[in-house]
Amino acid sequence: MNIKEIAEKLKTDKAFAEKYAGLKGIDAILSQAKTDGYDVTKEDVEAVIREMGIKSGELTETELAAVAGGNDKDNCPQCGSSDKEVTQVKNGHTSYRCKQCGRCWG
After folding, report:
1. From CA 94, how far away is CA 106, in angstroms rounded?
2. How far apart are CA 92 and CA 58, in angstroms?
3. How far apart are CA 89 and CA 68, in angstroms?
4. pLDDT tens-digit profile of 10-49?
5. How far is it, in rounded angstroms, from Cα 17 to Cα 59?
């Protein structure tokens, strides 16, 4: 199992995501991943954090919520900002773009 599998499981398994959201820092994430049977390196974890746009090794509460999928859908899943614009409304589904970081979701 690899880091991409962890990233995918974080999106689809709420209990799994909550477990990782409670961890503090890269070393704790790495340790938990290895305990869960994933073959990952510190560099793998750092790469995923960079891809997500997280700037430091310590996750903020907002970043943890975003990783765990716990953010309110009305707030940006990357930075937590509520400053957004509607980009599309189609078939009752609304898409947004964050005015702070540019992330699109919905």
Report:
1. 6
2. 37
3. 26
4. 778 888 877 877 778 888 888 888 888 888 888 888 877 7
5. 14
End-to-end CA distance of the chain: 29
Phi-psi region of 68 (alpha: psi -120 to 50; beta: other; left: phi over 0): alpha
Q: How many CA atoms lie within 13 A of 36 on its CB side?
A: 19
Report the C-alpha gap between 32 and 20 in whole angstroms. 8
Identify the bridge partners of residue 54 per DSSP, sorted by sequence position: none
Which H or E element spans position 19?
helix 14-21
Asked if 5 and 38 count as a contact pair (C-beta separation under 8 A), the reply is yes
Domain boundaries, the chain: 1-70, 72-106
